[in-house]
Write a structure and sequence with these properties.
The complex is a heterodimer of chains A (517) and B (417). By secondary structure, chain A is mainly alpha-helical. In chain A, 72% of the residues lie in helices and 5% in strands. Chain A has a 5-stranded parallel sheet. The two termini of chain A are 16 Å apart. With 417 residues, chain B is an alpha/beta fold. Chain B folds into 2 domains: 34-263, Rossmann fold; 352-414, no CATH class. In chain B, strand 6 (389-394) and strand 7 (397-402) form a beta hairpin. The longest helix of chain B has 19 residues, at 180-198. The N and C termini of chain B lie far apart (51 Å). The chains are: A mainly alpha (517), B alpha/beta (417). Chain A binds chain B through residues 13-14, 17-18, 21, 25, 60, 88-89, 91-93, 95-96, 99, 102, 117-118, 121-126, 129-134, 136, 291, 294-295, 313, 321-325, 328, and chain B through 8, 11-12, 16-17, 61-62, 89, 93-95, 211, 213, 312, 316, 319-320, 323-324, 326-327, 344, 347-352, 354-355, 382, 385-387, 417.
C-alpha cells in the first residue's frame, strides 16, 4: 500500500468498502483531498483494488457528454477529478445532471479540494444532497509535514522599514548604552536592543538584554518596566519554542499589568498567552485568551494588537480545521497591518492566508501568498519568516507533485533554520527532505535525512518527531530490502508512539504484523 | 423492493432519489399524518374546479415533491383527465434557462401527448405548430431526417437541439422576444384541439422548477414573467422554490395563482421544543419501510430522527451509518455509527457556514421565524436553499427552525466573537 497518512487509513478503508458494495451500480461518492500529489497516492491505492477509469473534469459540457457516452463495465469504478477552481458551468452540470452518475451502471468517485466541497454545498445543492457517502482525507501528516509558525505579538516602541534600518538602530543603541547613565533611559535602551535581537531571530541575545532591563527596572522600582521586561523574556522563550517557560513569564507580566492598571499590556500578555497555548495544541484555551485580548485592543483603539489578535484567532481556528473562518480573520488582520504599516505582521498574515488556502486545496493561490510573504520577510530581514515561507513553498510544490522544486525550497529552509538555530523546524525540513527523496526513489539519501532528523529530535526532546524519523526510516529501509533493520526501527517507533499515546501506533502495529508474516 | 435484511442491502435501500416507480411507492411510501396531503388537496381542486386553474406547489429540496406529483398523476381520474407530468431537467439546460425555452418545451410536451395517445390533431393546427417550432429553432429538414432515422420523435429532436446548443437557444430567444404570445397562442390551440378530440381535460405537472439554482434565475422566471405562467388554457401545477416564498415579492405573485400548496417537512419537535410524536412516527415509518428494524440497535432510529428532522437528510445519515457499521463487520447499526455520520455532517456545515449565516441561524433558532433584513438581503434564502434552516408545519401553524443537526452548535456560536 502507498504510504498514506496514518490518520486517513480508517477513512480510506471506509471509502474502499463503499466502492465495493456499490460495484455494478451507479453511485455518487465524494472525496476531498487538499493536495494533488496525495490524491494520486489515494488513487493508486484504489486502483490496486478496483479497475478504475480516471477522468478529469475540464468543463460542464464535456462532463455531461462523458457521462452520456459511458459504457458501463460491471467491475469498474469511475474516478473523476475536479479542477482546483469550480467554474459555474461545472457546478451547474454537476447539479443538473447528477442522475447521469447514477445511470452510469458503476460507481463514481469524485475527487475534489476542500474548497470545492464548500462550493458544492452552496452552489450545487442537489448534487450535494443526492449523493452517497463523502470522505474527507486529511492528507500528509508525517510526509511533507508543515508547521505553521506565524506572528507573535512584539510590543515595539519603534517602527522600521527594512533590515538595514534595524541594524542601524542596533548600532545606535549599542553606542547609547555606553554613553547613557540614567537608569530609566538605560532600561529603555536595553529593552529596544532586546527587541532588535528578537526581530533578528537572535533570542538568546534578546533574553540577555531583557534580563538586564529587568534588573534595572527592579533596581529603580519601575513596576511597568518590570512587567514589560518579564513579558519580553517570555516572548523570547516562546520564540525558542519553550512554551511552558513562556507561559510562566506571561502570567507574571499579566499579573503586574493588571495590578498597575496597564490595560494595553494586559491585552498584550493575554494575546501572548493565547499564542503560547495554541502552540501547545490548546486551541480552545487560546481562543479564549485571544478574545479577551481582542476586546481590550478594540476598547483602547489599539489597531496593532487588534490586528494581531484577529490574525491569531484565525490561526487558532485554522488549527481546529476551520480554514474559511481563519481566512476571514486573517483578511481583517492583513487589512489592519497594512493600514498601520506593520510590515512584519503583513508578511505573517500573508503567509497564514497561504496556509489556509493550501488547507482548502487552493495550492496555486497559496503559492502566490507565500511568494508575497517571502518578499516582505526578505525586505525587512525577518530570517525566521523567510525560513518558514521557503519551507511552505516547498510544501506547496510537493503538494503539486513538483518534487524537485519542493526539495530546492525545503533545502533553503533547512539552511536558514540552521543559521538562526530554529531546531524544531530544522527537524521538520529534514523530515520533508527525507520524504521527498524517498518519493524520488533515493532511499539512501532519504535515510541520511531521517538520521539527521532523529538526532535533532532527540536533542530537543521532540518525541513525536523522533517516532516519525524512526518510522520513516523503517519504510525507506524496507524499500532497500533491509526488512530486519526496518522491523527494528518500526519497533522503536512503536514504543514511542505508544508512550505518547499516538494513534499512529495502530498503523505501525499493522505494518509490523505484515512484515513479520 | 424488499426491506433490507442485512447492512449491504440497507446501504442500497437508503437512496435519496424520488420514488417514481409504482413498486417503489408501494414498498417505501409513507403517508404524512395530520394535515391534508398536498396530493389529495391538488387532486380535489383539479377535479372540482370549473375553470382551468394554475397552482404553485412548494416544498423543500428532498421533501418529496416529485413523489407527490407522481402520486397525483396516478390519482387523477383517467376517464376525465389527460396528464402531462414532466421534469424540466429532462429537456432543458438548467444552467442556461429562460422562460422562452420553457414554453417551447411545454408546447412540445403537449404535442407529444397527442402523438402518444394517438390523438389526430387538426392538420392546420399541427402544421402551423410544427412550422413555427422549426422556424424559431432554425432546425433543418436534414437534421430532422438524420435524427428521425435514429428513432427520435420530432419533439425530442427539437428539444434536444434547444437543450444542447447555446446558439439554438439564442436564436430561439431572439425569435420569440417579441412573439412569446404567438407561441402561447399555438400552445393553447394544441390544448384546445387535444381536449376536444380526447374528450378529456389536460393537466400539466411541471416538476423541478424549484431546481433553478441561481437565485436571480428563479426570481426572473417566477417574478418577472409570472403572468405568462397563467396563460396556458389548461390545468397546470408548477413546482416552486420554497426559499423564494420568503422574498417580499411572493405575496404579490401568490394571489395571481389559484392556490399555493405546501409540502412541508414533518417536524420532530414542536415549536416550543417538545417532542412531536406524529412527526417522529412518520420518519420512523419511512425507515422501517426500507429496512428490517432488527438491523438497528436500541435508540438508533430515535437519535437519527431527532438530529435530522428532514426526510432526505435522515435517509442520507442512515445510509452513511449503515456503511460505517458494515465496514466494521457489525450486523446492526449502532448509536456510534449514527453519531459519527451526524458529527461529520455537522463539522462540514460548521466549517462552511459564514459568520453572517451563523448569526442569522441563531436568530432563527431564537425567534422561530425566517425573514430577510430587506429586499437586497439573501441570507435567509441561502439558508433555506441549503436546508440549514427549515420551515415546519403542524397543527399549531408554521414556523422555522435551524437544521436539528446544527442545534448542538448553537451554544458555541452564541459565544463566538
Amino acid at each position: 500500500m502507498e504510504p498514506l497518512s496514518l490518520e486517513d487509513l480508517d477513512e480510506v478503508d471506509l471509502l474502499l468498502t463503499e466502492l465495493k458494495i456499490s460495484q455494478g451500480k451507479g453511485n455518487l461518492i465524494l472525496c476531498t483531498v487538499a493536495s494533488p500529489a496525495y490524491r494520486e497516492k489515494v488513487i493508486k491505492v484504489i486502483g490496486a483494488r478496483f479497475p478504475a477509469r480516471i477522468l478529469s473534469v475540464e468543463n460542464g459540457d464535456r462532463l455531461i457528454s462523458d457521462l452520456r457516452s459511458l459504457l458501463p463495465k460491471k467491475e469498474e469504478i469511475l474516478v473523476w477529478i475536479l479542477p482546483e477552481t469550480l467554474t459555474r458551468d461545472i457546478l451547474d452540470a454537476l447539479n443538473n445532471f447528477r442522475e447521469l452518475f447514477y445511470n452510469a451502471g458503476m460507481p463514481s468517485l469524485i475527487f475534489m479540494t476542500p474548497a470545492n466541497l464548500d462550493d458544492l454545498i452552496w452552489k450545487a445543492p442537489d448534487f450535494w444532497r443526492y449523493r452517497g457517502g463523502y470522505h474527507i482525507l486529511k492528507g500528509e501528516d508525517h510526509g511533507l509535514a508543515y508547521q505553521a509558525i506565524e506572528a507573535l505579538s512584539i510590543p515595539l516602541s519603534f517602527s522600521y522599514q527594512n533590515k538595514e534600518e534595524l541594524l542601524r538602530r542596533k548600532s545606535i543603541n549599542e553606542y547609547l548604552l555606553e554613553k547613557i547613565r540614567d537608569e530609566k533611559e538605560r532600561e529603555k535602551i536595553l529593552t529596544e536592543l532586546g527587541s532588535i535581537h528578537s526581530l533578528l531571530s537572535e533570542q538568546r541575545k534578546a533574553i540577555a538584554y531583557y534580563e538586564q532591563a529587568l534588573a534595572n527596572a527592579r533596581h529603580i522600582n519601575d513596576k511597568q518596566g518590570e512587567e514589560i521586561a518579564i513579558g519580553n523574556i517570555g516572548r523570547a522563550y516562546a520564540l525558542l519554542d519553550d512554551m511552558r517557560t513562556a507561559i510562566n513569564y506571561y502570567k507574571q507580566a499579566l499579573a503586574i499589568a493588571s495590578e498597575i492598571g496597564d490595560k494595553k499590556n494586559v491585552g498584550t500578555w493575554l494575546g501572548n498567552l493565547g499564542w503560547a497555548s495554541a502552540a501547545l495544541g490548546e486551541s480552545g484555551k487560546a481562543i479564549e485568551y485571544y478574545e479577551q485580548a481582542l476586546a481590550i485592543a478594540r476598547e483602547i483603539r489599539d489597531k496593532r494588537n487588534e490586528g494581531i489578535n484577529l490574525g491569531n484567532l484565525g490561526q487558532a481556528y485554522a488549527d481546529l480545521g476551520y480554514a474559511r473562518k481563519a481566512i476571514e480573520y486573517y483578511e481583517q488582520a492583513l487589512f489592519l497591518a497594512r493600514m498601520i504599516g506593520d510590515k512584519k505582521n503583513e508578511g505573517s498574515w500573508l503567509g497564514s492566508l497561504g496556509v489556509a488556502h493550501a488547507d482548502l486545496g487552493e495550492t496555486i493561490i497559496a503559492i502566490d501568498y507565500y511568494y508575497n510573504a517571502l518578499s516582505i520577510a526578505r525586505e525587512i530581514g525577518d530570517l525566521r519568516g523567510e525560513e518558514v515561507r521557503l519551507g511552505n513553498l516547498g510544501r506547496a510544490y510537493a503538494a503539486l507533485g513538483e518534487t524537485s522544486r519542493a526539495v530546492n525550497y525545503c533545502d533553503q529552509a533547512l539552511v536558514m533554520a540552521r543559521k538562526i538555530g530554529d531546531k524544531w523546524n530544522e527537524g521538520v525540513w529534514l523530515e520533508n527532505l527525507g520524504n521527498a527523496f524517498n518519493r524520488l526513489g533515493n532511499a539512501l539519501k532519504a535515510i541520511d535525512y531521517f538520521e539527521q532528523q532523529l538526532q535533532i529530535t532527540r536533542e530537543i526532546g521532540d518525541r513525536r518527531g523522533e517516532g516519525n524519523a524512526l518510522w520513516n526510516m523503517s519504510l525507506a529501509l524496507d524499500d532497500l530490502n533491509e526488512r530486519s533493520k526496518a522491523i527494528k526501527n518500526a519497533e522503536s517507533a512503536l514504543e514511542i508512539y505508544e508512550q505518547i499515546e499516538s494513534s499512529f501506533a495502530d498503523r505501525v502495529k499493522k505494518q509490523l504484523a505484515e512484515w513479520r508474516k | 423492493m424488499p426491506r433490507a435484511k442485512d447492512l449491504k442491502e440497507a446501504y442500497n435501500n437508503f437512496y435519496v432519489e424520488p420514488l417514481k416507480e409504482d413498486q417503489e411507492i408501494a414498498d417505501f411510501y409513507v403517508e404524512r399524518p395530520g394535515s391534508v396531503s398536498p396530493m389529495l388537496d391538488l387532486r380535489d381542486r383539479i377535479q372540482l374546479a370549473s375553470r382551468r386553474e394554475k397552482y404553485l406547489f412548494l416544498g423543500f429540496r428532498g421533501s418529496g415533491k416529485s413523489t407527490e406529483l407522481y402520486r397525483l398523476e396516478a390519482a387523477l381520474d383517467k376517464s376525465r383527465f389527460l396528464v402531462v407530468n414532466y421534469s424540466i431537467r429532462d429537456d432543458l439546460n438548467l444552467s442556461d434557462f429562460d422562460f422562452r425555452d420553457f414554453f417551447v418545451s411545454m408546447a412540445l410536451k403537449v404535442y407529444d401527448i397527442a402523438m402518444v395517445e394517438g390523438i389526430a390533431l387538426r392538420h392546420d393546427i399541427e402544421k402551423d405548430f410544427l412550422d413555427f417550432t422549426k422556424r424559431i429553432t432554425s432546425i433543418t429538414e436534414e437534421e430532422i431526417a438524420s435524427k428521425s432515422s435514429a428513432g427520435l420523435s420530432l419533439s425530442k429532436i427539437i428539444i434536444s437541439k434547444v437543450s444542447r446548443e447555446a446558439t439554438t437557444r439564442q436564436c430561439l430567444r431572439m425569435e420569440l422576444d417579441q412573439k412569446i404570445s404567438d407561441l402561447i397562442q399555438r400552445l393553447n390551440w394544441l390544448i384546445l384541439n387535444i381536449e376536444e378530440k380526447s374528450g378529456k381535460e389536460l393537466v400539466i405537472l411541471v416538476d423541478d422548477l424549484d431546481k433553478l439554482t441561481r437565485g436571480q434565475q428563479s426570481e426572473e422566471f417566477f417574478y418577472k414573467n409570472y403572468q405568462l405562467l397563467l396563460e396556458p388554457s389548461c390545468f397546470v401545477v408548477y413546482t416552486f422554490p420554497i426559499p423564494l416564498a420568503f422574498h417580499p415579492q411572493y405575496e404579490n405573485v401568490r394571489h395571481a395563482f389559484d392556490g399555493d400548496v405546501f409540502l412541508l417537512q414533518m417536524p420532530v419537535r414542536k415549536r416550543n421544543g417538545e417532542p412531536h410524536t406524529e412527526g417522529r412516527q412518520f420518519y420512523s415509518d419511512v425507515i422501517s419501510r426500507r429496512i428490517e428494524l432488527n438491523l438497528l440497535d436500541e435508540n438508533v432510529l430515535e437519535q437519527a430522527i431527532m438530529f435530522t428532522g428532514k426526510l432526505s437528510e435522515l435517509v442520507e445519515v442512515m445510509k452513511e451509518a449503515s456503511l460505517n457499521a458494515f465496514r466494521k463487520g457489525q450486523t446492526r447499526i449502532s448509536n456510534n455509527d449514527v453519531a459519527s455520520a451526524l458529527e461529520k455532517l455537522r463539522k462540514t456545515y460548521d466549517r462552511t457556514l459564514t459568520e453572517a449565516h451563523k448569526k442569522k441561524l441563531l436568530e432563527i433558532n431564537i425567534c422561530k421565524e425566517a425573514r430577510e433584513e430587506g429586499p437586497d438581503s439573501v441570507l435567509t434564502r441561502e439558508l433555506l436553499f441549503s436546508l440549514t434552516a427549515v420551515e415546519y408545519e403542524d397543527e399549531e401553524g408554521r414556523w422555522c427552525e435551524i437544521d436539528p443537526m446544527l442545534l448542538p452548535l448553537v451554544d458555541k456560536w452564541s459565544h463566538s466573537p
